[in-house]
Amino acid sequence: MASSTELLYSEEHNLVRKMAYDFTRNEVMPIIAEHDRKHTFPFELLPKMAQLGFLGICLPVCYGGAGMDFLSLGIVSEALEYGDSSVRETVAVHLALHALPIFQWGTEEQKETFLPGLACGDHVACFGLTEPGAGSDVAAIQTRAVSEGGDYILTGEKMWITLADVADRFLVFAKTQPDQGARGITAFILERGWQGLTTGTLEGKMGVRASNTGWINMQDVRVPAGHRLGEEGEGFKIAMSCLDNARFGVAAGSVGIIRACIDESVKYALQRKTFGKPIAEHQLVQQMIAQMQQDLDIGELLVWKAGTLKNQGVRNTRETSMAKWFCTEAARRAADNAVQVHGAYGYSDEYNVERHLRNTKSAVIYEGTSQIHTLMQAAYTLGMREDRPLRCPMPAYDPDSWQ
Amino acid sequence: MAILVWIEQHEGQAVSNCWELLARAKELGGELGADAAALLIGSDTGEAAQQAFAYGADRVLAANAPTLEHFRLQPFAAVAEQAVERTAAIAFLTNASIRGGVLAATVACRRSAGIAANATDLKVEEGRLLAARTIYSGNIHAEIQFESSLAVASVRPRSFPMPAPRDATGTVEDLNVGPNEDEVRQKISEFRATDTGEVSLTDAHIIVSGGRGVAEDPPKGFELVGELASTLGAALGASRAAVDAGYIPYKHQVGQTGKTVRPDLYIACGISGAIQHLAGMGNSKIIVAINKDPDAPIFQRAKYGIVDDLFKTVPALTAEFSKRLK
Amino acid sequence: MNVAVLIKQTPDTAELPRVTVAEAQSGQLQATMVINPWDEFAVEEAIDLSDRFGCETVAISMGREGETDALKHALAMGVDSAVHVDERVIDGGDEWATAEALAAAVKKVDTGEEVELVLAGKMSVDGNSSVIYAGVACKLGWDLLVNVTRIVDIVDGKLIAEQAFEGGQETVEVPLPVVISVAKEINEPRYPSFMGIRKASRASIPTLGRDDLEIRPSSTTRWTDLNKPEPEDVQVRIFDGASVEEKVAQLADALMAEKVI
């Protein structure tokens, strides 16, 4: 019998769901706890994900992608994060924060040059916006790009960059007009091996330990003009449009965490006995389980709504922000409750729930903190914010031309 | 009228589970007024045929020929059908091994007979033979009544107690050996016994299994578990988690996607007791759990437990038994 | 030579413990239904054979009306076509009626060339009987190899395979046509590809019903007294002690007293 989730989606989506969850259960879950414990990146998963087409799932076949839609991206994100946030992050950063912006803003030549290698995983890519002194306040970035003989010379430092030490392609934002604030930012595609570009890994993270997080340092890195994405000064808009892609994956992934927390808590609550009965029969445990289920049901609908708008090519900054805000907070709640249901064992890394709890604390910070989303939603509702059309909107999903 | 039991042989040796089945056939035959008949098919059935009398057979039928050296379905099924006819069998029983299962199914289908595959019990009620078996991977039990004149069952190893041999002999009835070599379509070009002296899981009286608890040093962990197994003359088992993680080959896996076992003693070392694992060993007579997590579900099914690190407990247990079993 | 692979739609293994007696009796399950995991090995082998020998592959599954998720999964993995057999053709009959229906379907499917090889998984996670493929071989009058761990070659109308059994392994040669049940060791089933998923979701799967297959009724067994065993609530005895040596000595005493060692 179809679950309510399956009814929201087409048969194609439900086949994707089974495939992606099978992948997570068979390939991710057996190895990920150990990687998390050791703070190591699961390199062995990259070729497997590339081979299945995860790294280019919602890129058209003509650019080497799998030609699937944005709902499929959501489903795969959900399934991967059911296993661990780090694995979903890899897809989000590589695809949503690097390949999709090229697909959206790039020239035809740039798409043909860059996308096939990204879609098949020959290149692994990341996104460099945040700096030691500029996170939510994007206009405050310090990285400079100076025009010189048709090229640009980039100097600066990026921090908290997922896949910094793994990637060989970098979408980096730098100021071409330092006095212009947000309007002075331009986007560039950098390649590993270029002189002056170095990367490193940041240690001591609370969560997402099986992901690579690091820094990118640029000392007079020469970037050809053909590697500039979009127009000069268009970087801020590009960065914000990237967030519409990535936040969607974060929201969908959080739904996967809630589902994992429910599955593990239900299993444990039915098995573990206190005071002569399974703890599932204690009402305060039931309350926590019910809360998780409520959050799951709401989260699924918000993700489905945002993904459907994306498929239709409708601007969805507002809906995606809402989905990201709600789902990440709900996932943090669910993980917190799941640890509580598991009691002392939940606090130990013998069970997955403590890892989810550490991971979800990161999700309410990255891709716009919950506070940023709160302000955005207030502004939309109060009529203080309006999204103006972009020069290059993300195209609607068109099965005929994408496949 | 007879209850016919196929005595499976490996390298000329009878598979001991078949004697359990033969002894049960003798009891059932007593209630139904049928002989317990043993069927041997092979190129060297002499010794096993005499053993069959010792384990309770009223009649022993044998087909002996070079064509029957290795199990091949076509000639074996032909001989088995012949034996069913010769003895006017009301039941044909096999050990639920890979070959026993396929021989039972083939004979049953050819004779339009009802089959209880992988049965766990056989009994007589109101003059009728009934078989018990499980479906949904052990989660539902069912009884099977036969509506056909011949009842066929393949029966799980260790479903009945092992009988003690009697001092009995008899005359073996020779069967027609079936098709000659030219007519046998299957040709075996290479045959390797993979039995390395390890006790096989499904036959074992004692199983010692290791699970994810060995993770901090898997080779050492399974070395310790293996030492305990060999001290006890036990088979070595493993949970799916240990097999999936590559600590030990699949053939050792116990559980829903591995082997179903029912030994007298099952010692689970560092196995949490996932439902899928319990499905494969939950019917063991005595379960012992060694786990450092006192809340591991395995303790809810175990009769005895030690809450401690297996890397300390298992070698201590090996030492203790080496002392006592000397 | 074309290849048919027999598959079944069964409950997700994780949900098997939740199957109730009423569901088992009616066959109407609440559980998520997926392709029987053992059958994935057969599907993978069929696809692999089509790559090696250029044969066409068809998946056949008997089930309720519209029960085609397992067939869609096989299509998504890469089989060329799929055929659904409406279970009403056997009218509630037994394993042999099922086998006859599947054998008739193997004869009926139109894949261009004749099907000369039928592949099946070693058992279903719901029925647990491992007899259907044996029945199919009987009804077709074909040879049968079981628990095959490798198909070495198909040459001159003969198939060479390795099959494993308790305590041994053999290489066997048999003329086509043949029915084969495959073991887990034979391969590692692939995940469906996105292209396969698109193809599968668009495929319309033909059904063979009473008008297409005439099956003799067969009902050789009656299932009675279905029940769900409740695990006994064994009270575990945990041995305490100051040292591991003390604990294991108590355990050894207990096991010696039980006479299991």
Automatic annotation (TrEMBL), chain A:
SUPFAM superfamilies: Acyl-CoA dehydrogenase C-terminal domain-like (SSF47203), Acyl-CoA dehydrogenase NM domain-like (SSF56645)
Domain Acyl-CoA dehydrogenase/oxidase N-terminal, residue spans: 10-121
Domain Acyl-CoA dehydrogenase/oxidase C-terminal: 233-376
Residues covered by the Acyl-CoA oxidase/dehydrogenase middle domain: 126-221
GO molecular function: acyl-CoA dehydrogenase activity; flavin adenine dinucleotide binding
Keywords tagged on the record: FAD, Flavoprotein, Oxidoreductase
Pfam assignment, any one: Acyl-CoA_dh_M
Cofactor(s) demanded: FAD
Family recorded in the similarity comment: Belongs to the acyl-CoA dehydrogenase family.
Name used for this protein in its record: Butyryl-CoA dehydrogenase
UniProt organism field: Caldilineaceae bacterium SB0661_bin_32
Automatic annotation (TrEMBL), chain B:
Gene3D superfamilies: HUPs (3.40.50.620), TPP-binding domain (3.40.50.1220)
Residue stretches making up the Electron transfer flavoprotein alpha/beta-subunit N-terminal domain: 3-187
Ribonucleoprotein in keyword set: no
Molecular function per GO: electron transfer activity; flavin adenine dinucleotide binding
Residues binding FAD: 212, 239-240, 253-257, 270-277, 291
Domain of life from the UniProt record: Bacteria
Cofactor note: Binds 1 FAD per dimer.
One Pfam short name: ETF
Keywords: Electron transport, FAD, Flavoprotein, Transport
Alphabetical GO biological process terms: fatty acid beta-oxidation using acyl-CoA dehydrogenase
Keyword Transmembrane part of the UniProt annotation: no
Stored SUPFAM superfamilies: Adenine nucleotide alpha hydrolases-like (SSF52402), DHS-like NAD/FAD-binding domain (SSF52467)
Cofactor: FAD
Family of the protein in this entry: Belongs to the ETF alpha-subunit/FixB family.
Record PANTHER family: ELECTRON TRANSFER FLAVOPROTEIN ALPHA, ELECTRON TRANSFER FLAVOPROTEIN SUBUNIT ALPHA, MITOCHONDRIAL
Protein name (record): Electron transfer flavoprotein subunit alpha/FixB family protein
Organism: Caldilineaceae bacterium SB0661_bin_32
UniProtKB/TrEMBL annotation, chain C:
Listed transmembrane segments: none
GO molecular-function terms, A-Z: electron transfer activity
Pfam assignment, any one: ETF
SMART domains: ETF (SM00893)
Highest taxon listed in the record's lineage: Bacteria
InterPro entries attached to this UniProt entry: ETF_a/b_N (IPR014730), ETF_b (IPR012255), ETF_beta_N (IPR033948), Rossmann-like_a/b/a_fold (IPR014729)
Signal sequence interval, chain numbering: none
Residue ranges annotated for the Electron transfer flavoprotein alpha/beta-subunit N-terminal domain, each copy included: 26-217
Protein name: Electron transfer flavoprotein small subunit
Provenance organism: Caldilineaceae bacterium SB0661_bin_32
Lineage summary: Bacteria, Bacillati, Chloroflexota, Caldilineae, Caldilineales
